[in-house]
């Protein structure tokens, strides 16, 4: 095992797939020669050259349109949209073109492509460069939606996304990029659609995604050490396909479920998760499913303000405790 | 906008072989008949939803398709029946799709605005104005990458020239020297508003060509020979690594924007003048003047009609798709599951 940062793991996944499959190409704004504004594609231009690793103009429509046209004619494009907020600039391609074309063509057209994008808060970039928008993509039939929380998953899940025959929107979390951890050496691949149970507890089940995963884990430690609450923590990893079976089993074991979401409150991914869980295993629940989310505000820039709205370890602990105290059914 | 056309560069149409000319005529006739039939089927309430006919624009489709290789790519708009037919998609599958039948190109899942026939190089019809220009550029990039010599063609209306995707696609195609041909069918109107009322330049496509380092090309889109020769030149350039072309074809739609539009906003004289320049009649007369026998043309026409009648009857008799069809092919595994 080697220690790799999350950003280096992204580059390692792309390199791994480009070496094994000549059809894989990579492109985006500042992606090639500069190695990406987040340095997630460093070294790829040098290894694979300008034919396979390309810089584009600031043309989000052309980036995703070109990815789509290339994917339907035999390539496996990996397109980068610099900040996930900019998906709004090319949402037609995400929501109308890429997501629907396989269906509308009755399966004549297949779109094996990946849209990689830097998502989420933590960089104090303000409301147009900090949103967490994986819930937007989750709402569109025809898109797979993946958001890793660790370097190992960044590599394994991105490799899986590139090999997947369907379009995948791959959210790389900006606040996790510098995190270092063990990443399996050699070829590494993690199948899409499998949640990961990171910690087993008997009192509550906490479901988290991306940057909220390390915070949920820290909160679980505090809850155990200071409040005698034993928490299971699940890293969802992929919203679509959704590993509902793991969620049901782990939720039923404790009967108390909490989601930790970076999305603003309304229609954050936890709303759908809570809906699915209560519909299927209602009788195993001992209290309401509680959602811990960013409040329904655009993200502020100042560090104190940003920290105040995105769920923190302290807030996760507090909301879980008050959820357990005040909303117990029995 | 007045209908007077600028002089276009003299094209070498004299050398077009006779067989190609007959093919150009046949394609135009088949499209004309099939589009008229689509309208009749709409009046009989057998075609639902909306449809955008290309009556009057047949020469563009015929000219381009006749110049294409079988493995070239076509990308169309919602007004795409003519291009889909011209690439060889069967009338039965086209009419069946319009009628929402099992025999339709996409079994009723796409409808009139999304005709797709990958087997014939028709990589989809796109109903968001301008969206397919970057997609066509992407297919051209793929052809360039794979070294196949395929060319990708995007057909679009005059209205699409004012949307961002047009400009992004042209720039990218020019920078990457992609083998793509952008063909603007300038029929003078968007839905109900003349393009001239909302565009900063006279020729909405051609007058923008210089911004992307491309040659300014305005051609008579009602003359299949001229379209064919312009397309052939653009394809030759693309295949030899010369990059993209942008061709503005001046044409006119004989009917309204969509099937429900009586097109009252068009001046009577304008319509009359363009009807005098009906591409199918014009081409028929040209072939006669060149010495092609009346019987040869009549035979092409009667065969097209017989083919169409048979396709119509078969489509009418085709069952509607099984309702389970609505749940298939969201994913490459054929299904629609989003959870385990
Ligand atoms: C992005 C977008 N805006 C608006 C529409 C609605 N709309 C459909 S067709 C059309 C007119 C397009 O005109 P033009 O590009 O000239 O094509 P034509 O219909 O004349 O072939 C409009 C406004 C749309 N489909 N997509
Ligand atoms: Mg028009």
Describe the structure.
The complex is a heterodimer of chains A (330) and B (340). Chain A has 330 residues and is of the alpha/beta class. Chain A folds into 2 domains: 2-183, Thiamin diphosphate (ThDP)-binding fold, Pyr/PP domains (Rossmann fold, 3-Layer(aba) Sandwich), CATH 3.40.50; 196-329, Rossmann fold (3-Layer(aba) Sandwich), CATH 3.40.50. Chain A is 38% helix and 21% strand. In chain A, strand 6 (144-146), helix 7 and strand 7 (168-173) form a beta-alpha-beta unit. Chain B is α/β, with parallel strands linked by helices and 340 residues long. Chain B has a domain at 38-79 and 127-290: 3-Layer(aba) Sandwich (Rossmann fold), CATH 3.40.50. In chain B, 40% of the residues lie in helices and 9% in strands. Chain B is built from 10 helices and 6 strands. In chain B, strands 2-1-3-4-6-5 form a 6-stranded parallel sheet, with helices on both faces. The longest helix of chain B is centred in the first third of the chain and has 26 residues, at 18-43. Chain B starts with 17 loop residues before the first helix and ends in a 23-residue tail after the last helix. Chains A and B meet through helix 3, helix 4 and helix 5 of A and strand 2, helix 5 and helix 6 of B. The structure holds thiamine diphosphate (TPP) and magnesium ion (MG).
Q: Helical segment tally of chain A?
A: 12
Order of helices and strands of chain A: EHEHEHEHHEHEHEEEEHEEHEHEHH
Report the C-alpha radius of gyration of chain B, rounded: 20 Å
Q: How many separate helices of chain B?
A: 10
CATH architecture of the largest domain in chain A: 3-Layer(aba) Sandwich
Small-molecule binders: thiamine diphosphate, magnesium ion
Uncertain spans of chain A, ≥5 residues at pLDDT below 50? none
How is the largest sheet of chain A built, in terms of strand order? 3-2-4-5-7-6-12
Q: What oligomeric state do these chains adopt? A: heterodimer
Percent helix of chain A, as a range, is 25-40%
Which H/E pattern describes the elements of chain B? HHEHHEHEHEEHEHHH
| Biggest pleated sheet of chain B | 6 strands, parallel
**Residue fraction in strands of chain A:** 15-25%
Q: What is the name of the CATH superfamily of the domain at 38-79 and 127-290 in chain B?
A: Thiamin diphosphate (ThDP)-binding fold, Pyr/PP domains
Q: Tell the overall outline of chain A.
A: globular
Q: Do you know the CATH architecture of the domain at 38-79 and 127-290 in chain B?
A: 3-Layer(aba) Sandwich
User: Greatest chain-chain interface?
Assistant: A-B, 48 and 53 residues
Number of domains of chain A: 2
């Amino acid at each position: 095992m080697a220690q790799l940062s999350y950003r280096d793991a992204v580059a390692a996944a792309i390199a791994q797939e480009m070496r094994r499959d000549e059809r894989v190409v990579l492109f985006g704004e500042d992606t090639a020669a500069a190695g990406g504004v987040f340095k997630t594609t460093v070294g790829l231009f040098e290894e694979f050259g300008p034919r396979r690793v390309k810089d584009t103009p600031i043309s989000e429509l052309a980036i995703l349109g070109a990815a789509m046209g290339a994917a339907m004619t035999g390539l496996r494009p990996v397109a980068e949209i610099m900040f996930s907020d900019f998906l709004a600039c090319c949402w037609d391609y995400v929501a109308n073109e890429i997501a629907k074309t396989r269906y509308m063509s009755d399966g004549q057209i297949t779109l094996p492509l990946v849209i990689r994008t830097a998502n989420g808060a933590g960089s104090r970039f303000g409301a147009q460069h900090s949103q967490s928008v994986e819930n937007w993509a989750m709402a569109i039939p025809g898109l797979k939606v993946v958001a890793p929380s660790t370097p190992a998953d960044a590599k394994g899940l991105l490799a899986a996304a590139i090999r997947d025959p369907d379009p995948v929107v791959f959210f790389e979390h900006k606040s996790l990029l510098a995190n270092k951890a063990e990443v399996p050496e050699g070829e590494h691949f993690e199948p899409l659609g499998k949640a990961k149970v990171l910690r087993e507890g008997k009192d509550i089940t906490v479901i988290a995604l991306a940057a909220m995963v390390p915070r949920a884990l820290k909160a679980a430690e505090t809850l155990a050490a200071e409040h005698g609450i034993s928490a299971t923590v699940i890293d969802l990893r992929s919203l679509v396909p959704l590993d509902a079976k793991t969620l049901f089993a782990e939720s039923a074991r404790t009967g108390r479920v909490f989601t930790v979401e970076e999305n603003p409150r309304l229609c954050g991914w936890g709303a759908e998760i809570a809906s699915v869980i209560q519909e299927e295993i209602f009788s195993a629940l001992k209290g309401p499913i509680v959602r811990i989310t960013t409040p329904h505000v655009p993200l502020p820039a100042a560090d104190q303000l940003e920290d105040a709205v995105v769920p923190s370890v302290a807030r996760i602990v507090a909301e879980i405790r008050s959820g357990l105290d005040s909303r117990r059914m029995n | 906008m007045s209908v007077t056309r600028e002089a276009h560069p003299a094209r070498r149409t004299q050398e077009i072989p006779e067989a190609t000319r007959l093919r150009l005529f046949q394609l135009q006739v088949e499209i004309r008949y099939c589009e008229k039939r689509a309208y009749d089927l709409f009046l009989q309430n057998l075609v639902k939803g909306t449809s955008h006919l290309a009556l009057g624009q047949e020469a563009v489709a015929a000219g381009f398709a006749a110049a294409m290789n079988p493995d070239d790519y076509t990308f169309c708009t919602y007004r795409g029946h003519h291009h889909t037919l011209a690439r060889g998609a069967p009338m039965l599958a086209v009419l069946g799709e319009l009628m929402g039948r099992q025999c339709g190109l996409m079994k009723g899942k796409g409808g009139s605005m999304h005709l797709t026939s990958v087997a014939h190089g028709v990589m989809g019809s796109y109903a968001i104005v301008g969206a397919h220009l970057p997609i066509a550029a992407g297919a051209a990039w793929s052809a360039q990458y794979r070294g196949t010599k395929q060319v990708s063609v995007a057909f679009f209306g005059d209205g699409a020239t004012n949307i961002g995707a047009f400009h992004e696609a042209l720039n990218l195609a020019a920078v990457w020297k992609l083998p793509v041909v952008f063909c603007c069918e300038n029929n003078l109107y968007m839905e109900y508003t003349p393009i001239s009322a909302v565009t900063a330049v006279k020729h909405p496509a051609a007058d923008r060509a210089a911004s992307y380092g491309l040659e300014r090309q305005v051609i008579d889109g009602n003359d299949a020979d001229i379209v064919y020769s312009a397309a052939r030149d653009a394809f030759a350039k693309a295949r030899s690594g010369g990059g993209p072309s942008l061709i503005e074809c001046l044409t006119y739609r004989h009917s309204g924007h969509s099937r429900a539009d009586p097109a009252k906003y068009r001046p009577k004289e304008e319509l009359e003048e363009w009807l005098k320049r009906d591409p199918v009649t014009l081409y028929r007369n040209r072939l006669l003047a060149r010495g092609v026998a009346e019987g040869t043309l009549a035979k092409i026409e009667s065969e097209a009609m017989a083919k169409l009648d048979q396709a119509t009857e078969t489509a009418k008799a085709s069952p509607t798709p099984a309702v389970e069809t609505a749940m298939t092919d969201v994913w490459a595994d054929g299904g629609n599951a989003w959870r385990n």
